[in-house]
Amino acid sequence: MNAPVDVSFFTRAAKPITSYRKYWAARFGTSKFLPMSRAEMDQLGWDSCDIILVTGDAYVDHPSFGMAVIGRTLEAQGFRVGIIAQPDWQSAEAFKTLGKPNLFFGVTAGNMDSMINRYTADRKIRSDDAYTPGDVGGKRPDRAAIVYSQRCREAFKDVPIVLGGIEGSLRRIAHYDYWSDKVRRSILVDAKCDLLLYGNAERAIVEIAHRLGARVPVHEITDVRGTAFFQRSTPPGWFQIDSSSVDTPGRVEEHINPYQTTQEQAAAQGASCAREEGGSVQGDAIPSQPMVFVPHAKAKAKFSLPPRERTVIRLPSYEQVKSDPVLYAHASRVLHLETNPGNARALVQAHGDRDVWLTPPPIPLTTAEMDHVFGLPYARSPHPSYADEQGSHDGATKIPAWEMIRFSVNIMRGCFGGCTFCSITEHEGRIIQSRSEDSVIHEIEEIRDKVAGFTGVISDLGGPTANMYRIGCKSPEIESACRKPSCVYPGICQNLNTDHSALIHMYRRARGLKGIKKILIGSGLRYDLAVQSPEYVKELVQHHVGGYLKIAPEHTEQGPLTRMMKPGIGTYDKFKAMFDKYSAEAGKKQYLVPYFIAAHPGTSDEDMMNLALWLKKNGFRADQVQTFYPSPMATATAMYHSGRNPLRKIARDSEAVDIVRGDRRRRLHKAFLRYHDPNNWPLLREALKSMGRADLIGNGKHHLIPSFQPLTDGAYQSARRKNSTPAPAKGRVLTQHTGLPPRVTGAGKPGGRRST
Predict the structure, then answer these.
(1) Model pTM score
(2) Neighbours of 149 (CB within 10 A)
(3) Is pLDDT of 703 > 80?
(4) What is the per-residue pLDDT for 259?
(5) Which of 41, 149, 221, 705 is a good FRET partner for 559, with 20 to 30 A between their CA atoms?
(6) Are 172 and 198 in contact (CB under 8 A)?
(7) Which is nearest to 79 in space by CA: 37, 22, 159, 33?
């Protein structure tokens, strides 16, 4: 079994979150639930709250809900923490419910971005909200983090406001806003908060809480990693790299290239990023002293590289990126190259006469710190205020998001896949933070012994990805110096440890526990990583699949796959062969459920047509499909807005990306994924003819869609009344003329598996 990934390089300068002296209010002890009313505060003997957390989700005291994690973490530090969940935002009154907090308001939109939670990829309003009792939509405002922050300021104007959560993380700099189709300012400007915390915030929030508890003014807290705030100018002693333009900056010897990757810098120095046998890593690890930097192997001049901890990169200003899509793509690229906590520099972006200053990403939590966070005294259920008179959370009070994760266990954080359409890198980062096996086993036992309704089935042992537990770079030094956006694209990195033995051991131990009937894996599987360990695939397939396993090849064609940073479909074929083999050996009929994305940047109409042909050939009929959703700050969103590919260096004449815009073309790409739906056939016929592929319209097995069009029930009845058309014989369908010979077929739908 492999040892835990060593993150000591990252944490050597980070104060452990368990090492702080507890705040004086620790004498009140812990509460079964963090209070949501003055009556609950009275029962706890509190005259006030030190910190009040405002969230757009219902309060579920479970480690899968961000506000519960932050609340319990702060409570463990000795602070009195109250919760205001899904308040009425029409006025500030609901924000005064618990009184004035002594230290600060902590604000989040919730576990999901409020705009993605509220609107579909087609910008249509959703009627449901899984994080609300009764699955009722509309219980939080659009751009909830902004609205909540403004209401907190109205309620108590002199109380500091600390904004966090994924909605803040994805908007920490000027960002493209899909819903308004324009570039918006950093959320700092509109929310008028004092501090923004991005990424996993335990380390930052603990330090900030203790500083505010020690009466340090909030505007003086400017050195905590993973934060953003306003500055009027660059402080003395800082070195600034101007990356506000894509134009050639002049003599290369006088500038540091913000695009330069670890491999490029190492090659320029005549070295390698790989560890030599018995040697040490070469590359751009954080230097304790200024180091000599050679920008090119043949360059004669040398200059000192300023220390990273005192270096800031100036991005193009908000005003620039708002009016210039090329500069927007350039800013996105630079930001994504500065996401490794081991080597990231601070970033700054002007908004008018003020700078939005971003400190480097937060230091990952150690395994011991992860165990501490997940081992806090969560009630593992919704707050009692959501229950009915019998104490039940059924019916109108049921919270679907809690029902989904009620019997699941989060074993790790982060993802080094780097998929361009995904927000995990921007929020959790690509360094894997794993819990200990003992901590995970203890939580399973807690669920078994204490959670009502448990039937012996754990619904998931996972995280952002199911199979990255304790996997990381072979060398912490290499990992800390790397600037690659993915460890698995375009192939598995030579420095990546792909050993799944720790996960296999935990699976076996978990399913051997008394009272545990089944352990399922519900998180998405990174199958290109899994095939590196046939033993893991066998273990997974034969013991932890409940009939269906979801995976995400996302596409079959190279064009969109390269813009997604996803592996080719050949890797899927290899995994499927292993899946089928091990299923047969176990005597089980099990199926893969592949997920695909329509209308992703870089996808042509021909790409979608080829994907549809692949789906039909392999017998897949997708009932639910996903259309590309441009979330703020994602790399694919930068492609969508700018038409450029920020995976490569941005220039005025750099690579253009085919962008799927307009409702009709987005509907077409979605229709290709649902080629079997008769409602899509008219649109597909028109498109195939315009593409010169009318040969795919017909009634044979090699055709994509038929030439006939079934009448709807209403149209069929109307036709009968008008023309007295006799009812079709059993096993036959009435067709409309489409300009091609109609065909009468047997009743029922064609065979093939259905993905849900």
Answers:
(1) 0.87
(2) 27
(3) yes
(4) 57
(5) 705
(6) yes
(7) 22
